[in-house]
Amino acid sequence: MWTETDNSLRRSFTFADFKTAFAFLTEVAAEAERLDHHPWFSNEYNTVEFRLRSHDAGNTITQRDRRLAAAIDAAAARHAGQ
Fold this sequence. Notes:
By secondary structure, this protein is α+β, with helices and mostly antiparallel strands. It has a single domain, classed as 2-Layer Sandwich (Gyrase A, domain 2), CATH 3.30.1360.20. It is built from two helices and four strands; from the N terminus they run E-E-H-E-E-H. It has helices at residues 18-35, 63-78; strands at residues 3-5, 8-14, 40-44, 47-52. Strands 1-2-4-3 form a four-stranded antiparallel β-sheet, covered by helices on one side. Helix 1 (18-35) runs antiparallel to helix 2. The longest helix is centred in the first third of the chain and has 18 residues, at 18-35. It is globular. Its EC number is 4.2.1.96.
């Protein structure tokens, strides 16, 4: 589940391996471009972490962040992320 911490939405996902995590990130990158909303993320082997917040709204959580979070959840499900 996404958590709200320090004016951001945060979540981590774990995948079967690095290749699957990277494929997931590639899908997220395409969606972030489509939404024109680019997240902070970290990837180490099979674990991907996100922090979402809107810089142009004073570094707060906005509806854009919630839309991207939903898209990230959908992509994670397609890649069997937990």
